[in-house]
């Protein structure tokens, strides 16, 4: 059974988990359509659903299945299988949901590698890549930066060199012409059989074209981007897991225009900006604000050209987002405590103490 499951991403070196109930079947979630799922048992694709208890409003999204999950199900055939248990996840790629609240949106799970796709046109944005690198660092997967549209910009080489000097210590950087078979060979060589990879990037970055390149066929719909800003429409409308010819698995995702960090990303920010964190430790004063204090190592690095001012500005922006997220989480926790205390008091007034 394990040999069939490795074809859809089960780690070759890990033993299969013990079935939690009689007649349990291990499968992987390969697509989600609202409350309906497609699962693969290593041989065939089946329809699946969750128990009614997980479909209720207010249920924590982490308790629900997501694309990439390994699940134990019962029943297959004409009726949809019932997902009864989710196998503990190895990695989780997530972001803060759009809007002012602090809900978490899970993008994909059980990933080995995340391909951060960015176009070498108007989509080129180093700050956005830094944000993606922070999210990937928080997930536990390894990052790979892929620049698309190499053939569309005569200044592409300089842009790629700039990215390599800035991110080379954090992730490999590939620049590809997605219409070239050589690019497919290069990319597949960077991915290992049995791995699960995920594509992330803004709409129009070339994710669907890159998916087709990896698959070796035109399976994902593509559209031209707008000329004035190189943005595209969402050609990928839902997440799905696909098998590649080299034995790896690919999860394609819709484009994301908002990438919010959360309180849990503090360690990931430190990892993504470890050069700035290391400089801060060299400041004369422990509470240095890196403004006008004497002996500030960060200001000295800026003046010498060792540190890029744009990178520092992005670090400060992400750190402030993290601080704001922590504050909102603390406020929400305090409000919940007040509500629960008030509710308990009303129960005592009505029924007395027990």
Automatic annotation (TrEMBL):
Highest rank taxon of the organism: Bacteria
Subunit structure as annotated in this protein's UniProt entry: Monomer. Associates with 30S ribosomal subunit, binds 16S rRNA.
NCBIfam families, A to Z: ribosome small subunit-dependent GTPase A
Chain segments annotated as coiled-coil in the UniProt record: none
EC numbers, comma separated: 3.6.1.-
One GO cellular component term: cytoplasm
Occurrences of domain CP-type G (ranges): 100-259
Gene name for this UniProt entry: rsgA
Chain sites annotated for binding GTP: 148-151, 201-209
CDD domains (alphabetical): YjeQ_EngC
The organism's taxonomic lineage, starting at the top: Bacteria, Pseudomonadati, Pseudomonadota, Gammaproteobacteria, Lysobacterales
Protein name: Small ribosomal subunit biogenesis GTPase RsgA
Cofactor detail note: Binds 1 zinc ion per subunit.
Organism: Ahniella affigens
GO MF annotation list: GTP binding; GTPase activity; metal ion binding; rRNA binding
């Amino acid at each position: 059974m394990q040999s069939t499951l490795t074809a859809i991403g089960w780690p070759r070196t890990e033993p299969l988990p013990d079935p939690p109930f009689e007649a349990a079947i291990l499968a992987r979630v390969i697509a989600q359509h609202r409350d309906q799922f497609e699962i693969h048992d290593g041989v065939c694709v089946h329809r699946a659903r969750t128990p009614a208890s997980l479909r209720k409003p207010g249920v924590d999204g982490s308790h629900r299945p997501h694309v990439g999950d390994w699940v134990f199900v019962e029943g297959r055939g004409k009726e949809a299988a019932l997902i009864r248990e989710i196998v503990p996840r190895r990695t989780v790629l997530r972001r803060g949901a759009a809007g002012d609240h602090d809900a978490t949106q899970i993008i994909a799970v059980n990933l080995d590698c995340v391909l951060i796709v960015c176009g070498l046109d108007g989509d080129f944005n180093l700050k956005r890549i830094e944000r993606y690198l922070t999210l990937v660092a928080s997930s536990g997967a390894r990052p790979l930066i892929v620049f698309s549209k190499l053939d569309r910009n005569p200044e592409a080489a300089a842009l790629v060199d700039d990215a390599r000097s800035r991110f080379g210590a954090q992730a490999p950087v590939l620049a590809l012409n997605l219409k070239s078979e050589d690019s497919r060979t290069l990319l597949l060589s960077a991915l290992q059989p049995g791995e699960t990879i995920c594509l992330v990037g803004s709409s129009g970055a070339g994710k669907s074209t890159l998916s087709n390149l990896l698959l070796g066929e035109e399976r994902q719909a593509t559209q031209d981007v707008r000329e004035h800003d190189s943005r595209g429409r969402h050609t990928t409308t839902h997440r799905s897991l696909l098998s590649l010819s080299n034995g790896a698995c690919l999860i394609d995702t819709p484009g994301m225009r908002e990438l919010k960090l959360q309180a849990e990303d503090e360690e990931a920010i430190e990892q993504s900006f470890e050069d700035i964190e290391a400089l801060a430790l060299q400041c004369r004063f422990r509470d240095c604000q890196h403004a006008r204090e004497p002996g500030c190592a960060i200001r000295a690095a800026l003046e010498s050209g060792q540190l890029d001012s744009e990178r520092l500005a992005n670090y400060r922006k992400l750190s402030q987002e993290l601080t704001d997220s922590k504050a909102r989480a603390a406020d929400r926790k305090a409000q919940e405590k007040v509500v629960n205390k008030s509710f308990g008091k009303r129960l005592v007034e009505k029924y007395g103490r027990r």
